[in-house]
């Protein structure tokens, strides 16, 4: 009896130990669609699949629909939708590692989805992409990735290139948390269309799932993305207290083109679209260079008609950005070669550099401050402004209207008259060159009381080609790059 008891206990112990051990990964050596589907079917919920296919390609005839949590390590393999099908659709957690997802295709909008996503469509689950290349996919909303509803999208050390959509060229998220780290988005685009089509050349976010968790972009690069409406690289909707954090990242050569059907082409790199509860957008150690908005906000357009957005910029470079390449057909003016702020919240600029930005067709080479902004809430410290100019295309006016940084500041909105006032903003130790002047009157116009007029010789921007921002230095220890 004692021996039987011992045997029974030993059996129970071994069973418990076996249950505690992780399931062994399934290794796919039949490197075709049938082999991959068989491995998915045979792998338990929470299991792992290794593709032992080298850098070979598995072509798919239809999408892979997952009803279990899986980790798939491609080990360099490619999954190809053949421009005829989506690659993955899941309502569970999915981790993809060292894999290429390419040529996924969804031809039309799906009525009960908020987005389509030709590479991965996730609802409810958590999607983790690590060391994944996502290229040449198309879907109407979210060319490559769709966080459809109550999901979590986490992108790490990955590359998105050549993806396209009507909205969100590479990624579209709705009520989904989004985090991007150490990744590159290049040459993604949106197409011309009516309404909101054309927004977010690389990324369009509609809402966050957890409002306590900001939309986060860290140590990433956005290069050569294009929209046909707003947000050449990013269109981020900040409603009901959603925050945004961008850190140690670079935005270069992005372009918000004019959509002839909507008459809008704003936010060359980023459109921070805000309405509702108070939100914070915090940009730290970021470079914006050579971005273009055909109309307004060469690098950034921040705010909205009823915005209560607080904007904090620390160690940020705006260099060579341009607004107003195409004239506004109604007002014949554009604004904000570097950026536009239109919000009832606050704006803080500390150790920022604005150099060689331009606004064509009239207004504000560096920053345009909108009529809704309380200028007592705008603070500028330890910053540099060099040669930010606005240009006019109206016959009989100077080619260079002025090199003001804040122009057309209203002191009496009810009269509608534009009046220029000395030091309308808060702060200290801002160096400006050349002297702020309004061309018709020649009136000196410092942006804050403690401005100093001096040629500080900001060096040309030099892009090193990676995510790390390249802040140009100058002759003095201020601005984003400090002293040379």
Which CATH class applies here? Mainly Beta
Q: How far do the termini sit from each other? A: 86 Å
| Helix content percent band | under 10%
Known CATH architecture: 3 Solenoid
Domain count? 1
Instruction: Give the strand content.
Output: 35-45%
Taken from the alpha-carbon principal axes, the silhouette is elongated
- Regions with little confidence, pLDDT below 50 for 5+ residues: 1-5, 7-21, 405-418
Secondary-structure class: mainly beta
Total number of helices = 2
Strand count: 45
What does this structure look like?
By secondary structure, the protein is mainly beta. The chain has a single domain (about 45-455), classed as Pectate Lyase C-like, CATH 2.160.20. The protein contains two helices and 45 strands. The chain has a 21-stranded parallel β-sheet that branches. The radius of gyration is 26 Å and the shape is elongated. The relative contact order is 0.06.
Topology:
Blueprint (H helix, E strand, L loop, with lengths): L1 H19 L5 E3 L4 H10 L4 E5 L5 E3 L4 E3 L3 E4 L4 E3 L7 E3 L3 E9 L17 E4 L2 E10 L9 E5 L2 E5 L2 E3 L2 E2 L5 E3 L3 E5 L2 E3 L2 E2 L12 E3 L9 E4 L2 E3 L2 E2 L6 E6 L4 E9 L2 E2 L13 E6 L3 E11 L2 E2 L6 E4 L5 E11 L2 E2 L15 E4 L4 E4 L2 E3 L2 E2 L7 E3 L8 E9 L2 E3 L8 E3 L7 E3 L4 E2 L7 E8 L3 E2 L4 E2 L6 E3 L31
Parallel strand pairs: 1-2, 2-5, 3-6, 4-7, 5-8, 6-8, 7-9, 8-10, 9-11, 10-12, 10-13, 11-15, 12-16, 13-17, 14-18, 15-19, 16-20, 17-21, 19-23, 20-24, 21-24, 22-25, 23-26, 24-27, 25-28, 26-29, 27-30, 28-31, 29-32, 30-33, 30-34, 31-35, 32-36, 33-37, 34-37, 35-38, 37-42, 42-45
Antiparallel strand pairs: 38-39, 40-41, 43-44
């Amino acid at each position: 009896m004692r021996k039987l008891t011992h045997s029974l206990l030993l059996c129970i112990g071994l069973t418990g130990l076996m249950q505690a051990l992780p399931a062994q990964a399934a290794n796919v050596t039949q490197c075709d669609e049938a082999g991959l589907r068989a491995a998915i079917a045979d792998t338990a919920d929470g299991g792992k699949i290794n593709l032992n296919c080298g850098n070979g390609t598995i072509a798919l005839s239809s999408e892979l629909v997952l009803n279990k949590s899986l980790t798939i390590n491609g080990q360099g393999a490619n999954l190809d939708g053949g421009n005829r099908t989506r690659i993955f659709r899941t309502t569970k957690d999915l981790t993809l590692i060292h894999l290429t997802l390419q040529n996924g295709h969804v031809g039309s909008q799906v009525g009960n989805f908020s987005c389509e996503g030709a590479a991965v469509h996730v609802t409810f689950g958590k999607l983790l992409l690590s060391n994944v290349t996502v290229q040449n996919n198309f879907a109407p909303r979210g060319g490559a990735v769709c966080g459809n509803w109550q999901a979590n999208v986490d992108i790490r050390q990955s590359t998105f290139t050549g993806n396209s959509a009507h909205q969100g060229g590479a990624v579209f998220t709705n009520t989904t948390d989004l985090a991007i780290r150490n990744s590159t988005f290049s040459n993604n685009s949106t197409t011309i269309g009516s309404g909101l089509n054309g927004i977010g050349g690389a990324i369009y976010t509609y809402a966050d799932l957890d409002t306590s968790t900001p939309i986060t972009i860290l140590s990433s690069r956005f290069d050569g993305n294009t929209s046909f409406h707003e947000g050449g690289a990013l269109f981020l909707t900040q409603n009901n207290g959603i925050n945004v954090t961008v850190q140690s990242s670079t935005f270069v050569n992005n372009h918000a083109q004019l959509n002839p059907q909507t008459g809008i082409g704003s936010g060359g790199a980023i459109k921070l679209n805000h309405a509702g509860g108070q939100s914070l957008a915090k940009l730290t150690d970021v470079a914006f260079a050579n971005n273009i908005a055909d109309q307004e906000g060469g690098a950034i357009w921040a705010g909205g008609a009823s915005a209560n957005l607080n904007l904090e910029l620390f160690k940020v470079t705006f260099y060579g950005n341009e607004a107003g390449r195409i004239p506004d057909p109604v007002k014949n003016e554009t604004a904000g070669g570097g950026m536009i702020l239109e919000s009832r919240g606050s704006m803080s600029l500390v150790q920022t550099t604005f150099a060689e930005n331009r606004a064509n067709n009239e207004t504000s080479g560096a920053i345009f401050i909108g009529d809704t902004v309380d200028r007592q809430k705008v603070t500028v410290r330890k910053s540099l402004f060099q040669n930010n100019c606005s240009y006019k295309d109206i016959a009989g006016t100077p080619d260079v209207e002025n090199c003001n940084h804040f122009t057309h500041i209203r002191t009496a909105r009810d009269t509608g008259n534009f009046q220029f006032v000395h030091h309308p903003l808060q702060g200290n130790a801002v160096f400006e060159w050349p002297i702020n002047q309004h061309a018709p009157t020649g009136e000196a116009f410092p942006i804050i009381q403690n401005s100093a007029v001096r040629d500080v010789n900001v060096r040309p921007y030099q892009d090193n080609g990676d995510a790390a921002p390249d802040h140009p230095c100058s002759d003095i220890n201020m601005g984003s790059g400090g002293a040379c």
